[in-house]
């Protein structure tokens, strides 16, 4: 009886090890195929993205001085506008009716 039980145990263990070996081989093949596909995809992305990035960088290098000039002009224009509108404007009567306009103070 013990000899039969030992033979069954050995047979079941052999089958389990063979199944595990088959699963490991299948995993290896799957990972290998995935790696090849990812390398091909990475190569394709590099070939398409790198020229786009280089173009964008050259555009930014070309536009940087123009943007700096525009921002300087905008700052100067806003200063001029602020001075003309807020400092050059006559003071009005407050909404509550009090106060005197600046030009009428010395009349």
What can you see in these coordinates?
The protein is an all-alpha fold and 107 residues long. Helix content is 80%, strand content 0%. It is built from one helix and no strands. It is rod-shaped, with a radius of gyration of 41 Å. The mean pLDDT is 84.
Give keywords.
1 helix; mainly alpha
Biggest β-sheet: count, sense, barrel?
Answer: none
Q: Work out the helix count.
A: 1
Strand content: under 5%
Number of strands: 0
Tell me the helix content.
over 70%
Structural category is mainly alpha
Q: What is the first-to-last residue Cα distance?
A: 130 Å
What is the chain-wise order of helices and strands? H
Radius of gyration: 41 Å
Low-confidence stretches: none
Overall geometry comes to: rod-shaped
Report the average pLDDT across residues.
Answer: 84
In short:
This protein has one helix at residues 2-87. It has 107 residues and is mainly α.
SSE layout and pairings?
Elements: H1 2-87
